[in-house]
Amino acid sequence: MALISVEDLAELDDEQLDDDITDSSEPMDEEDEDRLLAHWRAVGRGHHVSVPNEMRGPIAEMTQRNQDTEREQVPFAVISRREKMGEVLFEERVYPAGKWACITKSEKMYEQSISLAFMKLMRFICKESSVGRYLGMTVPVVAEFQLSENGGDFAKDVVTAFYLPAQFQNNPPEPNDPDITISHRESMRIISRAFYGTTTEETIQRQIQLFWELLGDMEGIHRHMYMVATYENPGVPERRNEIWFVRRDA
Q1: What global pTM score does this model have?
Q2: C-alpha to C-alpha distance for 2 and 28, rounded to whole angstroms
Q3: By the number of CB atoms within 10 A of the CB, which of 19, 83, 120, 146 ranks highest?
């Protein structure tokens, strides 16, 4: 989701939210939930989407659980890494086959599609499944999309995918939402490059351009299919993301 602006926040302090809410193990009171809902609605305005009142519960639960110790990393193996002066320029990785909860949205803008899809996935993660409880969070959440032949336009269909936690890989919970499907995705070989901040059509196109400039004439990569991997929640300023280029032989 979009980076929240100072104007949108209307003086809401992100650090204070983190200190007062995220680190607390006590149930969240109504005032805290109101502040969080206002925060997310401001973020949503940046992506031209509205955040409904029924998101209050999932937002509160995921905020309180937003700690590194409670987030499971999607498994992968590093094949190679290119560095320059100690900085990682990009990595090539293999991700094994596994089960993902997927949802396809076809809104006018990429950022609208990922925002609406992630809200549905949040509800699935928190309670709305055959398990009826919090499933656990895995990172990254991945958005898959295609660009036009000239690279200037996003295709309407955007697939947002959440890797099921290890305990559910062999026995996936059934989503209550018919828009969410549990899919077995084959292993994939990708080249990743980190970037920080917002994930909008404008910023992603810029990251793709920069990555191609870095890779030069490297062959065997899909030229129109890309992925964006997001590791942190929408309210984190300068949050970590990665642009993924997908190997044709993956």
Answers
A1: 0.84
A2: 25
A3: 120
